[in-house]
Amino acid sequence: MTALAVLVSETPGMQATGTGSSLGYRQQVARRHLTYTIPPALLLSLIYAPLCTRLDLYKLAFLIIIALASTIPWDSYLIRTNIWSYPLDAVIGLKIYGIPVEEVFFFVIQTYNTSLLYLLLSKPVLHSVYLVKEQKGRSKWKYVKLFGQLGLALAIKKGAEYVRAGGRHTYLGLIVVWAGPFLWVLWALAYQFLVNLPLTSTLVPIALPTLYLWVVDTLALKRGTWVIEQGTKTGWTVWPGLEAEEAVFFLLTNCLIVFGLVAFDNAVAVLNTFPAHYPHFSGLPSPLHLVQALLLPAATYDDDRILGLQQCVARLRAKSRSFYLASSVFQGRLRIDLVIL
């Protein structure tokens, strides 16, 4: 629903009746993508193209596939249970499991845009230096991990209560129940990176796309007729024209994208930093490699190697920041070797 909330708005003077006007109205939906979602994608692609690597393309494809696989069943359920609906004459008509193709395209383009922004902002970062060896039994990190897990678990519990109760909190509860478990798992796997990485790699790529979509959603809905079903929405607004459910959806989906990217980079950092654990790793990590790296206990990390890399990076940045930034053109263990040199 949230994608079409951005895309579907009724143009003054255009009625969705008759063949000609209906076609024009449907063209309006396509123009919403051309106006709001595709231009940022083209701009980010143009900026990032000289820096793009095979690993980046693999990461983008990986995230988009996961986004589609996790979102399509949920969105299809919302339509089938009448949590939200859409005007039949406001969409092209093609559907995937009952979901308009415009909505499915939004899942792809949102993931693409947020991912590219993350990649661009994270390009200078050498992720290996943000790994932390945890001492068994006396590490603050276990409390950081548990605190995040507890907070997310309570949010999921509250969302489940909203869904069970039905009524005006239903849609909000469904959003939290859907997104919460994914965020819980990603936090459990990558909490070190989510806390340690610069805010330009975590907060900024969440906040900027979210704010942009909030503004776009507000502009579209103020001119349109798109609504969540009255019986399943809270009626709360973030500001006039932006319903709370819309705001929460965009925020949580961008959190999911960035958390997923951070977890991916966390796994790749482990694979690249500790050749003693992964002597034969090179190139693109398989899903199995990613899972194995994320499940490697932090207590087994080579603290001396991490400290050595941190000292090398600090020294290099102090003496030649331009060379440090230039090293980001290289990938994986090659970049680590260059930094050490």
What do you see in this structure?
This is Bifunctional lycopene cyclase/phytoene synthase. This protein is mostly helical and 341 residues long. The chain has one domain. It contains 12 helices and 4 strands, in the order αααββααααββααααα. The protein is globular, with a radius of gyration of 22 Å. About 6% of the residues have low confidence.
Q: Can you summarize this structure?
A:
With 341 residues, the protein is mainly α.
How many structural domains does the protein architecture include?
A: 1
Helix and strand string, N-terminal first? HHHEEHHHHEEHHHHH
Shape: globular
C-alpha Rg, in Å?
A: 22 Å
Helical percentage: 55-70%
List the uncertain runs.
Answer: 5-25
Structural class: mainly alpha
Q: Could you tell me how far the N terminus lies from the C terminus, measured between alpha carbons in angstroms?
A: 52 Å
Mean pLDDT, as a whole number?
Answer: 85
- Please give the order of strands in the largest beta sheet: 1-2
Strand content of the residues, in percent?
under 5%
DSSP strand count: 4
Total helical elements: 12
Characterize the main sheet. Answer: 2 strands, antiparallel
Membrane topology: Multi-pass membrane protein
Keywords: Carotenoid biosynthesis, Isomerase, Membrane, Transmembrane, Transmembrane helix
Organism: Friedmanniomyces simplex
Transmembrane segments: 57-74, 171-194, 247-271
